[in-house]
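Onboarding guide, step 5: your first structure request.
Type a short instruction followed by the sequence, for example:

Predict the 3D structure of this protein.
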Amino acid sequence: MSDYKDKYEMVIGLEVHAQLKTQTKIFGREGCEFGKNPNTETGPVTLAFPGVLPVLNKECVNKAILTGLALHSTIPDVCKFDRKQYFYPDLPKGYQISQYDEPICQGGWIQISNKKIGITRAHLEEDAGKLVHAGASGLYGSSYSLVDLNRAGTPLLEIVSEPDMRSPEEAREYVETLRNILKYIGVCDGNLEEGSMRADANISIRPIGQKEFGTRAEIKNVNSFRALVRALEYEFVRQAEILEEGGKVIQETRLWDDNSGITSSMRGKEDAHDYRYFPEPDLMPLKISREWVEEIKRSMPELPDEKKERYIKSGLTEYDADVIVNQIEMALYFDKLLEKNVDAKTASNFLMGEVAAYLKEEKITIEDSKLTVDNFAKLLELLKKGTISNNIAKSLVIEILKTGEDAEALVEKKGLSVISDESSILPIIKRIIESNPEQVAAYKGGKDKLFGFFVGQAMKETKGRANPQMLNKLLKDELSK
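The system replies with structure tokens like these:
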């Protein structure tokens, strides 16, 4: 890629399909829970029985409006549904109900670290089913395909960006930011592995300085952030090599193979007229009152950027705030901690350090651990009062994560409270000084770094329980004699 980046510029736009968190499908009563046995979440509407009519799920509309407000989109007074004509075995009707020229969300933007990425539109539509290809292939082999219609009719919100991104890193940040917004407002779980959020990438390249866009290719089957970056990097080089050889990039849909790390041609890229859109005759245009929009606006939860700003004001660095905000379960937990009036910076240090490491190792979320908010707040309060040291708190938080034992009871049972009694610490210091005459002489001779040696010996003797401030003061006094 580096061979061409000084000559060509990427132009990237993304189409993100977000599955809305509803109990039933967008036009039918069937459920849409992931992981059910094949073809068990189906019904007359999904299977396109003769004479059945679609009925719009109001909760899908609510979630679409909420998303539009979070993305700074305009919610029109009227939107309508359209038939998108194409045939595929997992699309029983032979067409998809979608939105074309009058979508529910128009315009908008998302802020990433260095710029705003424009939103063209966001529209409601139904998902298709899933084909499972199996068996051998070849002249004498036997191959077949199975269809699972559980996903057919699942409500989707397709969010289309402007072609404002100029690098794979910007594209990744855009999708991560969008995913975070959708999770925070509760409209989509953002699970790329289960397919509840999918991104198709449109990429073209042009000589640096040229205003006109090049011919774009659409990349499908991108199901992770890493795959998105790799696919865009590969496609940039492929298109650049075509142009360098005097060829022309053709408009097409390409499939990303994560194992081989390449894209391959899937089909010619369709334009809107290829789908023969026309208004869906079985659904009336949808009128959206301003009162409806305002009611949904009042239910808007705190968005990631707002939460980040609040965390910074509470004492976190921008980096710390970013880390916590980007993990919604951790952020919600952190909010409950702040309600207990704990020190924000101390709490975030533990969450991002010992707690995060334990959760990663155990492959669980903080909600699955035994560290309750109340108990963690107790531990942080013991640390703040000086009852326990920072090192002891670090070891205790791991034990509480595993057992859920009460912090105060654990400190009492193990006898871990900090020793702040001068009469208890001083004899230990004197004994260490008497036992290490060579180190004492070297320290007094100018090797100041040896002070850490004496601190370490004292902490070892007290099992980390000595009050650090008192220990340092007493040591300096004794070593200066």
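Each response can be followed by summary notes, for example: The chain has three domains: 8-292, 302-414, 422-479.
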